[in-house]
Design a protein that fits this description.
Distance between the termini: 66 Å
Number of strands: 7
CATH architecture: 3-Layer(aba) Sandwich
Largest sheet: 7 strands, mixed
Radius of gyration: 20 Å
Strand content: 5-15%
Number of helices: 8
Order of helices and strands: EEHEHHEHEHHEHEH
CATH superfamily: Alpha/Beta hydrolase fold, catalytic domain
Strand order of the largest sheet: 1-3-2-4-5-6-7
């Protein structure tokens, strides 16, 4: 793997409000952290006590779209599709996940980031680890006719056989797997995403008329993606309630333990 440029946008709640959950949000083709709903979702989750990572993965993005993020110095390797490959993106995602507890980590991916999220779950399965949750929004699961992005794009979807995706199930806790699509997505047709969702054993939601669920279809940095926030928040709340129940049960057991006679 070459050393392509990856910048990680991280938001942290104050220590006293951190709920222990980390969320990693992966953009799609030509994406960046403040494009579409990614940054908005990160800030909403931070307000709920989560730590979030939104990495700028190697891709070809317009210089003016990220100039402010890099103090006017656009990294050279962001200007070439040569670095928009599975190997390069894997390095960026691994940088986010390093040192994190997978069972307290949620991975969310949009478009090509959705494919990357499945690869991440598959790697977790190989390492016998489990993510807390996985959300794939309009995930790329096959050829989407972006010839200018080839051959890099195919490095993501060609390995994603039904067997590969089924293995990824084992890298996510319980049934905490969701795929969200739109019925009129011209970039990644829902007919492509659905077989992958079935192999993943994921719950599938369809948002009518939302196209590719990006900025061009109204999911902007200002309006965000409320439906996804609702689903992620429900998973976080469920997990925190379960942790509280376990702690309460352990406390009750300790308090109600039968006294033992001590022999002096």
């Amino acid at each position: 793997m070459t050393q392509a440029y990856t910048k990680i946008e991280e938001t942290n709640p104050t220590d006293d409000k951190f709920n222990g959950i980390t969320v990693v949000i992966l953009h799609g083709v030509d994406g960046f952290p403040e494009k579409s709903w990614y940054g908005w979702l990160a800030r909403q989750l931070q307000a709920k006590g989560c730590r979030t990572f939104v990495p700028q993965l190697p891709t070809k993005v317009p210089a003016d779209g990220i100039r402010d993020m890099y103090d006017g110095n656009t990294p050279e390797k962001l200007g070439s599709y040569d670095y928009q490959t599975l190997n390069e993106w894997t390095g960026g995602v691994e940088a986010c996940l390093k040192g994190l507890d997978p069972e307290k980590t949620i991975v969310i991916g949009h478009s090509l980031g959705g494919a990357m999220a499945v690869h991440t779950a598959h790697q977790m399965a190989l390492e016998e680890k489990k993510l807390l949750g996985l959300f794939c929004v309009c995930p790329v699961a096959g050829d989407i006719n972006l010839l200018e992005c080839e051959p890099g794009l195919s490095t993501f979807y060609k390995p994603m056989t039904p067997e590969f995706v089924k293995k990824a199930q084992q890298g996510v806790n319980g049934r905490n797997r969701w795929v969200i699509v739109s019925n009129n997505d011209q970039d990644v047709p829902p007919e492509q995403s659905r077989p992958m969702a079935e192999a993943l054993g994921a719950s599938i939601f369809c948002i009518p008329g939302a196209k590719h669920i990006n900025r061009d279809s109204g999911f902007t940095p200002d309006t965000g993606f409320p439906f996804l926030l609702e689903k992620v928040s429900a998973l976080i709340e469920q997990n925190l309630n379960a942790q509280h129940t376990v702690k309460e049960h352990r406390s009750t057991r300790r308090a109600g333990a039968k006294p033992e006679e001590l022999k002096l």
